[in-house]
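TA notes, week 10

Several of you asked for a full example with nothing omitted. So below is the full record: structure tokens for the whole chain, then the designed sequence directly under it. When grading your own attempts, check the secondary structure regions first.
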């Protein structure tokens, strides 16, 4: 079997699709449902059930979410309800959906997907993937093995959390010119390079679509590539995790 179902849980939308893992492409048009408010575990599990019903999907499911997930337990919650914290998420979802479920951090999912099918595909060394969106997500992959839950968006940088310093939403709202934003990103990349010395940095998140517009402001020692899977990276990575649950 090469088709597995992936769900990407975000603060505003929950997206799902079956993924063909022989090539990393969605096997059907993805469906998005607005994130319920409050986005409690139970309310989100109900949306996941709706998605599975819509696609008449069978088999295990992977869910990417903006949280630290350790051994199936959710330990943090960014842009989703605090009720997630401490919840045995995999157990709860498996029970509600009647099948094995794997939960994982959304940036970790995107990193796994990019390593397997995207920008990191041929990279044998250390890869740092950063996703720039509402927050900053991070995935660190060494020789194909993920170091989960790195949460570099919360690293202290210039007196605040990194994700506040370079939030991509600032560009969206036109509060900040993209080249000024990019110069902040550049400072942050230099900081992470000093700490981790990656061989490759993959630049992800919605704003990576505009990579060409600002990449001239980014100077890194490592190779720097935009993510290739765009908005589907979370779903594809979640489907990869689903396969592990099979
Ligand atoms: C969260 C991370 C998440 C990232 C991207 C951060 O605020 O703490 O867990 O990966 O946002 O959604």
């Amino acid at each position: 079997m090469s088709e597995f179902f992936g769900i990407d849980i975000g603060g505003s939308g929950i997206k799902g699709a079956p993924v063909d893992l022989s090539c990393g492409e969605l096997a059907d048009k993805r469906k998005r449902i607005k994130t319920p408010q409050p986005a409690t575990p139970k309310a989100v599990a109900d949306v996941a059930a709706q998605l599975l019903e819509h696609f008449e999907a069978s088999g295990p499911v992977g869910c990417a979410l903006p949280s630290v997930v350790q051994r199936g337990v959710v330990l943090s919650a960014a842009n989703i309800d605090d009720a997630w914290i401490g919840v045995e998420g995999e157990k709860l979802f498996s029970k509600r959906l009647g099948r094995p479920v794997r939960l994982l951090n959304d940036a970790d999912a995107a990193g796994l997907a990019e390593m397997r099918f995207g920008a990191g595909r041929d990279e044998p060394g250390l890869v740092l993937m950063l996703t720039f969106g509402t927050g900053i997500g991070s995935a660190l992959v060494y020789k194909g093995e993920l170091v989960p839950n790195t949460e570099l968006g919360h690293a202290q940088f210039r007196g605040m959390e990194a994700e506040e310093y370079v939030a991509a939403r600032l560009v969206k709202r036109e509060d900040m010119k993209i080249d000024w934003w990019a110069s902040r990103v550049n400072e942050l990349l230099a900081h992470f390079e000093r700490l981790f010395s990656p061989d490759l940095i993959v630049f992800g998140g919605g704003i990576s679509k505009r990579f060409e517009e600002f990449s001239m402001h980014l100077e890194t020692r490592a190779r720097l590539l935009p993510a290739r899977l765009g908005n589907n990276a979370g779903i594809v990575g979640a489907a990869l995790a689903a396969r592990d649950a099979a």
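The chain has two domains: 3-108+232-245, 122-227. Use that as a sanity check on your answer.
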